[in-house]
Specification:
single chain, 5-stranded mixed beta sheet, alpha/beta, Rossmann fold, 7 helices
């Protein structure tokens, strides 16, 4: 008979996993307390950086069922989630996600769902990159300058080179111009 495990995660110590636990029980999954894994760790942490999930992986065996309330409990992004689900499927563990109607993500329908989610996530990422690039191009056309502001004006650079040629040290010139030694060194090299 397959064992049922639940993985419930929250991001901060001020949060509780109680809602997730109740949601899993309400969906009809009977999870023994010793098979309920709760963890407080940021969602931006990779699975390998989640100590309780790593221990859970050691406990899971082929035929077991792992239940989560949402996909984001399993990973940072769709690729991370898909990698985790594939890893569990390779172990023979079925993964049920309540937010997707309790579908087994390792079943053919679940794999299709995961594929659609991954495709949508990739599409959203591509749209974000496209919008960002269009915004940068528009700002450049409008004359916006990007990057760090210049530390020394052309006049100050000329002064630095003149002082250095007159025997002043890089440190002394940097103090006089109220800048770093590296900036003075770069001004000298640009000559």
């Amino acid at each position: 008979m397959p064992r049922t495990f639940a993985y419930c995660r929250v991001s901060t110590a001020g949060q509780t996993t109680e809602n997730q636990v109740q949601e899993i029980a309400g969906a009809g999954f009977a999870v023994e307390p010793r098979r309920l894994v709760t963890e407080t760790v940021s969602g931006s942490s990779a699975i390998e950086q989640r100590p309780k999930f790593v221990k859970l992986l050691d406990r899971l065996e082929g035929g077991d069922v792992l239940v989560v309330t949402k996909l984001d409990r399993l990973g940072r992004n769709s690729i991370d989630v898909q990698t985790t689900v594939n890893r569990l499927a390779a172990m023979g563990v079925r993964v049920h996600c309540l937010a997707l109607g309790g579908v087994d993500l390792t079943s053919p329908a679940g794999k299709m769902t995961m594929g659609v989610i991954a495709a949508v996530a990739e599409f959203e990422k591509d749209l974000l990159i496209e919008r960002t690039n269009a915004g940068v191009a528009r700002a450049r056309r409008a004359g916006k300058k990007f990057g760090r502001p210049v530390a020394l004006s052309n006049e100050q650079k000329a002064t630095a080179r003149r002082l250095l040629a007159g025997g002043e040290s890089v440190s002394a010139v940097a103090r006089q111009l109220k800048t770093s030694r590296m900036t003075v060194t770069r001004a000298r090299a640009a000559a």
